[in-house]
Design brief:
Layout (H helix, E strand, L loop, with lengths): L7 H8 L38 H9 L2 H12 L17 H18 L4 E10 L11 E10 L4 E11 L17 H18 L6 E8 L7 H12 L3 E8 L16 E5 L9 H9 L7 H16 L4 E5 L11 H6 L4 E6 L12 E3 L2 E3 L8 H19 L6 E6 L6 E6 L6 E9 L8 E6 L3 E4 L8 E8 L13
Parallel strand pairs: 3-4, 3-5, 5-8, 6-7
Antiparallel strand pairs: 1-2, 2-4, 6-8, 9-10, 11-12, 12-15, 13-14, 13-16
Helix pairs in contact: 1-10, 2-10, 3-5, 3-10, 5-10, 8-10
Bound molecules: zinc ion.
The site of zinc ion has 6 residues, from helix 5.
């Protein structure tokens, strides 16, 4: 749904990069966070719960442009974060950067009574002469896990690569500030962790800066393997990469939209599953698309100055990101990226050529916009972090009948209130109609013909928190 365009000046006064800013010491937590609101009053099973949650408005409001700017400048201060750069120095190179990230998570954990499990998830990537990893290198992801209270084996991940590069992908020595690509995404991860770690969640949240992306998505692949080895049931991965710039290469300035790249059919589908999905028209309704629809709905509900634009593609044309390894293994994953990129500011040696400035430096970023996109992530993760598990074994019937019937198995969650049915015309991008069903496991929607709509089902808890929508027969 299109939104009022907010004049750029209004927003950019908050986040405009100020080259005179004095960096704070790394241990500072920035502006103080207020104590969280108490949980809302539970509803009776008969009443339809409200999707709009006051605590999520509070979470969005707690995200700070000042803190994300400080984090971006701190990361740029390591000179280069190239995956094959120095690992010994405490001031320059990827080793210093990853130890700083680890330390930031530990500091946050100390503020929430040890609520974060901070660890390195790493592996050796073997060298290959002529490739982007010419010698063996240890790719190290410093991650933090916020363990869920009710469904600890279900996970929502926020990922962002923290490595950087210049024009030559194998140049590990030159300054590679990587401010927007992708200190922006990492600052988003840190800020969301800082805010959400003060709110206990029902499912587990993983905050994951990743290395090795520019050398071939290695950090994403290593964390995907770790998730598989540990049996994580992943609700969704939000991969943030390039989220802090509002001036496009064409000169367009837009701080009111963000893209959500939502891939279609997963390559892991068996032929039989694929045929069933295709015959039901389900190729538009795979889980990654349901996650993207949730991002759009969250933006509509909680971020009045931001529209999330669904892009039905794995990624930008011919390019990749760390959500791909997850998606390629069958996990639900999307990529969040600014709408208008400036390619003179990506993967470039810092220089001036024919009067044109090149290089990924922080002074041209829009930190107010970056904080808004971080707020969107925080709201999506909170909304999924408190939601019950999605319904399973959802079947649908109604061929040659005037009405449509759904059946499903009951969701096992102590705070479950019931289920909400969604439907829409097949060419509509998002769910347009819904009905509260209460705590049942079967429902017939009278006089709505199955052939003419797509249907979906979500589980809802007593506070109105809602699972992702499930397309039947998947
Ligand atoms: Zn990137």
């Amino acid at each position: 749904m299109p939104k009022r365009v907010i004049p750029l000046l209004l927003l950019s006064t908050v986040g405009c990069a100020n080259p005179n800013v004095t960096p704070e010491p790394p241990s500072a937590m920035g502006p103080a966070l207020r104590p969280p609101l108490a949980a809302p009053t539970p509803l009776s099973p008969g009443s339809s719960p409200d999707f709009d949650n006051p605590r999520i408005h509070e979470i969005v409001g707690a995200v700070s442009a000042e803190r994300v700017e400080r984090d971006v400048r701190r990361l740029v201060g390591f000179g280069t974060r190239h995956t094959l750069s120095d690992t010994v120095s405490n001031t320059r190179g990827i080793g210093a950067a990853r130890r700083w990230l680890f330390g930031e998570f530990e500091r946050m954990s100390a503020q929430c009574g040890g609520c974060l499990e901070v660890m390195y998830v790493s592996d050796i990537v073997p060298g290959e002469s002529g490739g982007r990893v010419p010698v063996d290198v240890q790719v190290v992801n410093p991650i933090a896990i916020q363990r869920g209270r009710l469904h600890g084996d279900h996970y929502v991940l926020m990922t962002a690569h923290y490595d950087s590069r210049v024009t030559d992908p194998n140049d590990s020595a030159s300054d590679a500030p990587g401010a927007n690509d992708n200190a922006s995404g990492v600052a988003g991860v840190l800020e969301v962790a800082r805010v959400l770690s003060r709110y206990p969640t029902d499912v587990s949240i993983v905050y994951a800066p990743l290395a090795g992306e520019e050398q071939g998505l290695h950090g994403g692949r290593i964390l995907t393997a770790y998730a598989e080895d540990n049996g994580w049931s992943i609700i969704g991965v939000l991969n943030n990469d390039v989220i802090g710039n509002t001036t496009g290469v064409t000169g367009i300035v837009d701080n009111t939209t963000v893209r959500v790249f939502a891939p279609g059919l997963p390559p892991t589908l068996e032929r039989e599953e694929l045929q069933r999905l295709l015959s039901a028209g389900g190729e538009l309704d795979v889980p990654s698309r349901q996650l993207a629809r949730r991002v759009v709905r969250i933006a509509d509900t909680y971020l009045p100055t931001l529209d999330a634009l669904m892009i039905y593609r794995l990624d930008r044309f011919g390019r990749g990101g760390d959500h791909s390894p997850f998606f390629n293994q069958g996990f639900t994953a999307v990529r969040i990226t600014e709408t208008h990129e400036d390619y003179r500011r990506q993967h470039q040696d810092v220089r001036i050529e024919d009067g044109v400035e090149y290089g990924d430096v922080p002074d041209v970023m829009d930190f107010g916009y970056l904080a808004t996109v971080a707020g969107l992530n925080a709201a999506v993760i909170a909304s999924l972090g408190w939601a019950p598990p999605a319904p399973e074994e959802v079947s649908i019937s109604g061929a040659v009948l005037p009405s449509t019937t759904l059946r499903w198995s009951a969701v096992d969650a102590p705070d479950l209130l019931g289920y909400r049915l969604y439907w829409r015309r097949p060419t509509e991008p998002a769910w347009t109609q819904s009905r509260w069903l209460g705590d049942v496991t079967e429902f017939t929607l009278e006089n709505v013909v199955i052939d003419n709509y797509f249907f979906g089902l979500a589980a809802v808890d007593r506070d109105g928190n809602e699972s992702l929508v499930v397309f039947p027969n998947q």
